[in-house]
Amino acid sequence: MQLPAEKMLAEAVGYHKIGEYAKCVPLYNQLLNMEPFNAGVLYLIGDAAVRQGCSGLAINLLSNAVSINPTPEAFTALGCAFKAEGFIEEARGAWQEGLKIGPSAELFNNMAATYADSCQPETAMGFINRALSYNADNPNAIWNRALAGLTVRDWPQAWKDHESRFHPQVQTVSTRRDYGCPMWDGTPGKRLAVHGEQGVGDEIMFLSMLPEVLARCPDTVVEVDARLMDTVERTFGVVTYGNEQAMKAHEKPFDACIPLGSLGMLLRQTDADFPGTPYLKANPERVAYWRRQYAMQGPGPYIGVAWQGGTKSTRLAQRTVRASDLLFAKKGTAISLQYGEGAQVDARKNGYLFWPESMGMDMDEVFAMTAACDLVVTVAQTLVHVAGSMGIPTYVLTPLHASWRYGMQDTMPWYGSVKLLRQKKPDDWGHPLAEAKRVVDKLCKGYKA
To answer: Which residues are 394's β-sheet partners?
Structure first.
């Protein structure tokens, strides 16, 4: 027997609140069968679709909902659906419509997020301050303020705000480990646990601070992505683990612990605190091996190339050029260091040398392949950190609105060997590609084997 509509709706909303979408969606469907243009139900099922990753479906449902009954909640969800698929301007448009009807901290935060980590800190701060006016301790607003602050190198306040990434309301991949010991305050001589908590690229970047940690606390154990263990052990001579469970089983208890991304609070308070010197080492035997492989395939200079970075949710379209845009690297011998689906096809189609080791399953091999290159030309992706950490001359095809890691200048404080070739206007790669070609041409002209 079918439940009355009111009871069915209440039951569906109950499931919705606890994330039981497989139970609430069929009930919403039944309600829509009875009343196809019920804006409230369209919003609810659209919101459920967003949370299940069905963004295209959600966009259609929520677009219908706001056309019938425009509410801030429906525009909020619609913007989230657009953002999930990389339609940033459409997301902003939806949230702006929501703000016209009913301003809220959530809508201001959503707007701020699209600017805070895309090299537009001033615009971001306008929305952040509006969000903070509702609640000065709003963790999402503080997180957005961290990204804006890191972009402009306001290090002391930004690192403090950066700790908000661990708040349960803030959606990041970072998690704080519980090793049964307090947070490290910089005191020397501690038996210390340092752990990664973000992506491979960020872990490599933050590992630049490990030499200073080891100078204070030689008895340090490090948890990093398992693919980085060999490189970190070789470089620093430390014990490493590839996951939290293994780290917790370490034979000795720790006096203190700290996430890699929190070391900046102690060690990077001014621009002068960034040495920018190489700090990771590739396996010299593997570097020599790859140099021989390159030499058997073509003359130097050997130029590593990568043309795609990110995912839909991290601005894939803005961080990608065509593989064929880098054909100027073939004035020397071009080596594909691109990872991901389609890398092999694109590389071979364009005549770049390709080996499966470049795909990143064994990052130690990627480090060796990169170290065997004379120069790297890449978009904004993990290769920037790999090459920069070893001091390889690297030229980055950089979007006008890049993430905080790339800041607003033409250099990165983390890597002295990295130069940013930034767009002059959005989506126009003409200037960066021309500059990269000029650099390659100059290298090839003066190259001596």
So the answer is: 376, 418
Q: Give per-residue pLDDT as tens, 353-382.
A: 999 999 988 999 999 999 999 999 999 999
284-445 placed in CATH 3.40.50.2000: yes
Backbone phi, psi, residue 9, to 5°: -65, -45
All structural domains of the chain with their residue ranges: 5-166, 192-273, 284-445
Largest CA distance in the chain: 84
Q: H/E/C letters for each residue in 211-246?
A: HHHHHHCCCEEEECCHHHHHHHHHHHCCEEECCHHH
Q: Is the pLDDT of residue 391 over 50?
A: yes
Is beta strand 415-422 parallel, antiparallel or unpaired with respect to 411-412? antiparallel
Beta-carbon-side half-sphere exposure of residue 201 (alpha carbons within 13 Å): 13
For the segment 101-151, what is each residue's pLDDT rounded down to a tens digit?
999 999 999 999 999 988 899 999 999 999 999 999 999 999 999 999 999
Task: Give the mean pLDDT of 234-242.
Answer: 97
- Tokens at 361, concatenated: 């399953």
Q: Can you tell me the distance from the alpha carbon of 256 to that of 194, in angstroms, rounded to the nearest whole number?
A: 9
Cβ neighbors of 326 (< 8 A, separation 6 or more) are: 305, 307, 334, 350, 352, 377, 433, 436
CB 336 within 8 Å of CB 202: no
What confidence tier does 1 reach under pLDDT thresholds 50, 70, 90?
very low
Output the six-digit token pair for 149. 């602050």
pLDDT mean across residues, the chain: 95
The yes/no answer on whether domain 5-166 falls in CATH 1.25.40.10 is yes
Q: How far apart are CA 156 and CA 133, in angstroms?
A: 22
Angle (CA) 18-164-225 rounded to 5° is 85
In 3D space, the residue among 115, 137, 118 whose CA is nearest the CA of residue 127 turns out to be 115
This prediction has a pTM of: 0.92
